[in-house]
Amino acid sequence: xxxxxxxxxxxxxxxxxxxxxxxxxxxxxxxxxxxxxxxxxxxxxxxxxxxxxxxxxxxxxxxxxxxxxxxxxxxxxxxxxxxxxxxxxxxxxxxxxxxxxxxxxxxxxxxxxxxxxxxxxxxxxxxxxxxxxxxxxxxxxxxxxxxxxxxxxxxxxxxxxxxxxxxxxxxxxxxxxxxxxxxxxxxxxxxxxxxxxxxxxxxxxxxxxxxxxxxxxxxxxxxxxxxxxxxxxxxxxxxxxxxxxxxxxxxxxxxxxxxxxxxxxxxxxxxxxxxxxxxxxxxxxxxxxxxxxxxxxxxxxxxxxxxxxxxxxxxxxxxxxxxxxxxxxxxxxxxxxxxxxxxxxxxxxxxxxxxxxxxxxxxxxxxxxxxxxxxxxxxxxxxxxxxxxxxxxxxxxxxxxxxxxxxxxxxxxxxxxxxxxxxxxxxxxxxxxxxxxxxxxxxxxxxxxxxxxxxxxxxxxxxxxxxxxxxxxxxxxxxxxxxxxxxxxxxxxxxxxxxxxxxxxxxxxxxxxxxxxxxxxxxxxxxxxxxxx
Length: 533
What we know:
- It contains 16 helices and eleven strands.
- By secondary structure, it is α/β, with parallel strands linked by helices.
- The chain folds into three domains: 14-250 and 261-271, TIM Barrel (Alpha-Beta Barrel), CATH 3.20.20; 341-455, no CATH class; 467-528, no CATH class.
- The strands form two sheets. It has a seven-stranded mixed β-sheet, covered by helices on one side.
- Helix 2 links the parallel strand 4 and strand 5 (133-138).
- It is elongated.
- The N and C termini lie far apart (91 Å).
- Mean pLDDT is 76; it is low at 1-15, 218-277 and 524-533.
């Protein structure tokens, strides 16, 4: 077990130890006062600790001593920072508009939030006044402290059951399992929404019988309708250990004692091969770097995406569309790298502006003549796509919001997504949009590629483009030669577009002389040559 004095200076925990040496001892602390509390840290942008995008508030103080504890620096109140409740409420208010817009809210974790009952009660009350969704991430060991009035301000409980076997639970955490089970029974009776979490640790909690007991508990809760039917997160996500190495609270069977203070070790990631483990650690480091530098991620996606788009394989290339797929990769390894605020809005505005400038003339020309046929064809294609999306959504029982988002993404239409969001009134279309958008980009590219290879259509040759260039003729054909005589000596395809005479640009006159012609050619090589006659 990680005891006081075992954290060395320079390790990742030294910034969060003994921050408040005057704080009361954690053991036996009732935490009924609501004017202040001891906070370990807070984090924005979480997407796995409740619906939407969450603000995570990590409290100090915990009675459990889990062998695989991810944050042993949250065990003691004295390792946190004393924060006034009013200050915490003000800071939460700064984030509230964005959290509401992204369908998220506040999740309090730790440590164990129920150690500081009064402070967290006040924070939850403030969050509900701001109209935020609230979640409690708890082991349930101190569930008896949370009365009905406390839970009334909690919309979702993330119940972290370390083990379904009492003996394993006692060995892993140092406390009994029964209080957690009683809390689970109470939540089920109340009909409180609950996500059950289980930490699978190789060599410690991965025994099949232990997992089966946890599964039986979950199924029993589902039969009682716990939380309206959701005992696991909607995507079936379980809390699993990542590939990165980190300080462990205690050595346990199967742990690797390669690092950390005495008695501590690295957590092996599902017994992955050593080489793969190193790759995971490298990806984790890259993820941390990119996640803290969103502007770097933006230009990295643009630069790498543009380079990848230039790669041509058997006549197939993604072009600028490759930027999207590089962005998807960066978003997968560093989800916090998304550009927020006005930069993202400016990017969207510039995109729409570019489309308007590029195709404005063709748009208005298409309102008459043969363009009406093209517009009718486009209208039929859009309506057909909507009908197909709605039909398949009804057949496979997909939510209407998700279906509309899929339709908008398949058409790569941000404006359609915004219309769907306004119609549905929640963020469901964003999910379908994010899933379908990549296929909306790559699908047409692949269709055109394979179609042209099979049908081999014959396209008319591109019209020759004129390349402008200025040509200085140092020696005229003869004294007093006219421009017409000079033009007769020029290579085929070169035309005189203008003449500079007496420091003025003039239209070409074959009878004029003493001039410097500005020429244009259908060949860039000819346009760039310097002619000497």
